[in-house]
Every structure is written in structure tokens, then in C-alpha cells.
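Bumping my old thread because nobody answered last time. Still need a sequence for this structure:
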């Protein structure tokens, strides 16, 4: 798939201006995930945006783990995030952890206290919320707001030393309890949490809040353009306040863009974790998950994912993207790359009664008619084959052009066959068809005497390789918006169908993550976790057609 340059966007235009005016000689962006879960497709949008901008303007992009909440963060998540960023095709310049800067952040907090801009407050979290006021009403000042600098320095040091219990005290910025922006009403900067941290262990029992930590992390790393999603627009005044009052040498600027939302998709690590913990899915990399690892296991390619998020662009207002648009990019990516072969996913045995017993012939089959460079393979044909159960009807409606008693169809790459007899078991289930073939109709010869309307696929029963096929439907039934009803009530009970069938024998060399287009069924990927040497498991990535138009 061609690698289209990203279309322009407002952040890119700002960068062009900043470089032109000399405000920055080099731009630095960052991707700052909190390691509290696996990355999802929404994160891909942020990754592509940040890395592409830096790449285009010869800047740098850091991968920084925003790990300031020890309760939710784990090393497993750190490792998976690194793997996913690399898999998407990006290499970070610096690899940092917010927790590396705890000492520096602590010192900046001391600076605020000394400047009379921060105080230790004994109100509980509930009391702080209750006294915060509303959009119409100003907040109330905390009774602890006018503690002296000395008292605050002493209490803050003692908070660090572990003299107080969780929630007993916090450090708050002293800004303006009647600010029209609620984020400026003496926000909490530090809280106490006696919880070991994945990086710093027991060294700290006070942890900085996001709104204090994030601007400092950006400034310490020399980030120039700090890109985040729209929910943080109202936090920008606080971001700027922290940079200014902490007297940071570098002055990063925050820019907000619309987050990616998709139909039928939950886009939040916290919610995705609920699905994992409740056992609704088989782990973070379940092929139905919108995580990068789930999409990878399903068979989506980094090329398709990046092209998709580039195409959506960078907007300033939120919208919901049709999830089928991602499928479109996968088809575009694999159209010329994936070999096209035959697989029967709901097998029905067919005996070709006039074909010599013991005979096997090897027929030519093109690997990809749209990409002749992929060459030709040989496929076996003999007296017993499998076709799809769906490709036969005993009592068909009008316009059914596939196999039915007395009808003739073309077997892809092989011969015309005609259905002569339907064999059933005692319960009346169809177990086998008896057909005849016409040797004159071999594919590739210029047989013109008669035409058939249907072409069906098949595999040779003697040599086919048993395989499992997993077909997926959306995991979430309804569109899920962040404020919507409980998404756990919207789980699709039929999101996975498992079928046992056969693929061509040539697929015996196939390895995990090899991708194929199975004639008429769609694109499939060999599952890396469930496949065995004896039996590959194929995840359907997408079907061949969709009503979706770009
Ligand atoms: P989640 O709720 O899934 O945990 P988050 O925003 O809390 O998401 P972070 O780990 O803090 O996740 O996100 C890292 C970066 O990815 C942030 O800059 C964030 O703005 C961005 N990001 C997260 N979700 C999306 C999304 N749906 N679309 C675009 N960017 C996103
Ligand atoms: Mg989060």
C-alpha cells in the first residue's frame, strides 16, 4: 500500500509557523501513555500524529510512560506498549518514565510552597469536591489555605516521610477559588498513597497528580508541542500555570485534537480491562478487541492501521468514525500482497463418480490475479473433494446458480461438475453428493460449448489440510459513546463463530501471522496463539465486500 503523506492539519500548520518564526529550532513531541492497560486503536491515532509530525520536520518523539498512579500501573503494560509502538513502525528517540522525575517534581512543589502558591490541605477528597463550587457558584476557600510557608514545608516533608495515612492530607495549588475555570480552584497537586510503584518501589508514598506532573514531564524533556485530546482543553490554563510558576526553563505548549471514536467500539483502557477481567474476551489480545495487540492477532497490518488513522485526520471537534473504514484499509493493503487460495469452512463431501479412482492431477492456480508477479501454484484434484455446504441446495429458489440436483457449476481452477445424487443419513441430513465431471471443461482450456452460471470453490479431500476458522462479529452491539449506558449490557453474544474445515495442502508451510485471501470468504490470518503444528487456526480479519464507501 502506498504510504500517503499525512494531510495537513492545524497542529502541523502551527509547527510550520513555529519553525519559520524561529520560536523552535527543532520540534519535540511525545506519546505519553499511562501504563494501566494495553494500547488501543485510539492510541494509534496519537502515535501516528506525534511521530509523523516529528519525522516530517526532523524533530524528535519521546515515548514517555505517565506513571504517576501506582495503583493501576504495571510492568506488563509497559512492555506491551513498547512492543505495540514498534510494531506500528515507530522508533522513539527518548524512552522516559514520569516517575524518573519524582525528585525534580517534589522540588518544584517545594518552590511553589516557598512562593506561597501551594499549601497542605487536610480536607478529605469529598470535602474538597463539595467546596469546589459549580460553574455558577464560586468555591469556598479551604480553612487550611493560609498556613504559613514554614508550616507547609514541614507538613509536605512529613507527607513524603510517610507520617500520614492515605487521604489524610494533600498538597494543593493556591490559585483562585472563584475562577470560572474549575480546574483553577486550588487543584490538588500531590496525594498520599502507600502503594508500591512499579518503578520506584517503596521510595515514595506521595504521588503527583496528572495536571501537575504532565506539564513538568513535558518541560523537563524539552517537548515543544504537547498534543492531547480535547477533554484537556480546560486544563490548559493550569498546564500553563504549572510551567510558569514552577519556573521551568522550557515552555511546552499544549494542543488539543479530537479523540478517535468508532462505532461498536469501546475506546478506553479502563473499560477494556473490565472485559478482560470479566472473562468476556480471551485476554487483551483477543482478536475481537480494539487493542493494537488484538488487531495484530486478528491480522490487521500496521500499514492498514496507520493509513486509516491518517485518513481520519486531525479534527477539533469529536465525531464517530465507522469501524468498517478500518476494514477498507486492510483490504486495500492486502489486495496485492496476500495469496489467494481456497478454503472450505463448512465442508460437504463430494464424490466425482466418473473420475478414476487413485488418480490425482495437479492443476494450475494463479496466486493473485491482480498481481501476476505472485506466480502460479499447483493444486491437487481427485475423485473426492469438499465444497461448502452453502454452495448446495436440494430445493433452490430461483436464481440460485450454485449446485443443486441436475445443475452444473464450475469448480474454480478445475472442471464443471454436475450434481447427480444426494446422499443422506438416517436423520435426513445431507452427508455427501455424487457428481460427475466433464473432462473437456478443464480450466485454462478454451472450452466454449456451454456456459455455467456459478463458480464455487473446493479443496481436494485426500490432501486437504484440516484447519479451524474463527469468524468475528463486533463485540459491542450498539454504538458506544463514553457517557453512554453500561457497555457491559451491550455485549454481542455471537461475536465469535468457530468452524472446522480444510485448506489447500500447499498451506502446510504457513506460519503464524501469514495472511491469505480465501476465495469468497475474505482475508484471514494464522492465529499465533491457537495454531498447532497439526492444525492452523485462521482468524478472519475481514470479509471481502462491504457496503462501506470511503
Ligand atoms: P484510556 O482512557 O484508554 O486509558 P487515556 O487518554 O487515558 O486513554 P493515555 O494512556 O493517557 O490514555 O493516553 C496516551 C495518549 O493517547 C494521550 O495523549 C491521549 O490523549 C491519547 N489517546 C488516548 N485515547 C485516544 C483516542 N481515542 N484518540 C486519540 N488519542 C487518544
Ligand atoms: Mg487514562
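Sorry it took so long. Here it is:
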Amino acid at each position: 500500500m502506498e504510504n500517503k503523506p499525512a494531510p495537513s492539519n492545524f497542529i502541523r500548520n502551527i509547527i510550520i509557523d513555529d519553525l519559520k518564526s524561529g520560536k523552535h529550532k527543532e520540534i519535540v513531541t511525545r506519546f505519553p501513555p499511562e501504563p494501566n492497560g494495553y494500547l488501543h486503536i485510539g492510541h494509534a491515532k496519537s502515535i501516528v500524529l506525534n511521530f509523523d509530525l516529528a519525522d516530517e520536520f526532523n524533530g524528535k518523539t519521546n515515548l514517555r510512560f505517565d506513571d504517576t498512579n501506582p495503583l493501576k500501573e504495571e510492568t506488563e503494560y509497559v512492555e506491551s506498549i513498547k512492543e505495540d509502538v514498534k510494531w506500528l513502525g515507530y522508533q522513539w528517540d527518548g524512552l522516559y518514565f514520569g516517575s524518573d522525575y519524582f525528585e525534580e517534581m517534589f522540588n518544584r512543589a517545594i518552590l511553589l510552597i516557598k512562593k506561597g502558591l501551594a499549601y497542605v490541605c487536610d480536607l478529605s477528597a469529598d470535602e474538597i469536591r463539595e467546596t469546589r463550587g459549580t460553574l455558577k457558584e464560586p468555591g469556598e476557600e479551604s480553612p487550611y489555605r493560609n498556613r504559613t510557608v514554614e508550616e507547609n514545608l514541614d507538613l509536605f516533608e512529613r507527607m513524603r516521610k510517610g507520617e500520614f495515612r492515605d487521604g489524610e492530607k494533600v498538597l494543593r495549588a493556591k490559585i483562585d477559588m472563584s475562577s470560572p475555570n474549575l480546574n483553577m480552584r486550588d487543584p490538588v497537586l500531590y496525594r498520599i498513597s502507600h502503594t508500591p510503584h512499579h518503578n520506584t518501589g517503596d521510595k515514595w508514598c506521595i504521588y503527583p497528580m496528572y495536571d501537575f506532573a504532565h506539564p513538568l514531564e513535558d518541560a523537563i524533556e524539552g517537548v515543544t508541542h504537547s498534543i492531547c485530546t480535547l477533554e484537556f482543553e480546560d486544563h490548559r490554563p493550569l498546564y500553563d500555570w504549572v510551567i510558569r510558576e514552577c519556573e521551568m526553563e522550557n515552555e511546552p505548549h499544549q494542543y488539543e485534537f479530537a479523540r478517535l471514536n468508532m462505532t461498536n467500539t469501546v475506546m478506553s483502557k479502563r473499560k477494556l480491562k473490565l472485559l478482560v477481567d470479566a472473562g468476556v474476551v480471551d485476554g487483551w489480545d483477543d482478536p475481537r478487541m480494539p487493542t493494537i495487540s488484538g488487531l495484530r492477532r486478528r491480522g490487521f497490518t500496521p500499514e492498514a492501521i496507520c493509513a486509516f488513522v491518517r485518513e481520519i485526520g486531525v479534527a477539533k471537534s469529536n465525531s464517530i468514525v465507522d469501524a468498517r473504514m478500518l476494514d477498507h484499509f486492510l483490504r486495500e493493503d492486502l489486495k496485492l500482497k496476500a495469496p489467494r487460495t481456497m478454503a472450505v469452512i463448512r465442508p460437504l463431501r463430494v464424490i466425482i463418480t466418473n473420475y478414476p479412482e487413485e488418480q490425482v492431477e495437479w492443476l494450475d492456480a494463479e496466486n493473485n490475479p491482480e498481481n501476476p508477479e505472485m506466480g502460479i501454484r499447483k493444486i491437487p484434484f481427485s475423485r473426492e473433494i469438499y465444497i461448502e455446504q452453502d454452495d448446495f441446495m436440494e430445493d433452490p429458489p430461483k436464481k440460485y446458480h450454485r449446485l443443486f440436483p441436475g445443475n452444473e457449476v464450475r469448480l474454480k481452477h478445475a472442471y464443471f461438475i454436475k450434481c447427480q445424487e444426494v446422499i443422506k443419513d438416517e436423520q435426513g441430513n445431507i452427508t455427501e453428493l455424487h457428481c460427475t465431471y466433464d473432462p473437456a471443461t478443464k480450466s485454462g482450456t478454451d472450452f466454449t460449448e456451454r456456459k455455467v452460471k456459478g463458480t464455487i470453490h473446493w479443496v481436494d479431500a485426500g490432501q486437504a489440510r484440516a484447519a479451524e476458522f474463527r469468524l468475528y462479529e463486533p463485540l459491542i452491539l450498539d454504538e458506544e459513546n463514553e457517557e453512554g449506558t453500561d457497555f457491559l449490557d451491550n455485549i454481542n453474544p455471537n461475536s465469535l463463530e468457530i468452524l472446522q474445515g480444510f485448506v489447500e495442502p500447499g498451506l502446510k508451510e504457513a506460519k503464524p501471522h501469514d495472511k491469505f485471501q480465501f476465495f469468497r470468504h475474505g482475508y484471514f490470518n494464522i492465529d499465533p496463539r491457537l495454531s498447532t503444528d497439526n492444525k492452523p487456526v485462521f482468524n478472519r480479519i475481514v470479509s471481502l465486500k462491504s457496503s462501506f464507501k470511503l
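The domain at 269-334+467-503+510-542 is CATH 2.40.240.10 (Ribosomal Protein L25; Chain P). Let me know if any region looks off to you.
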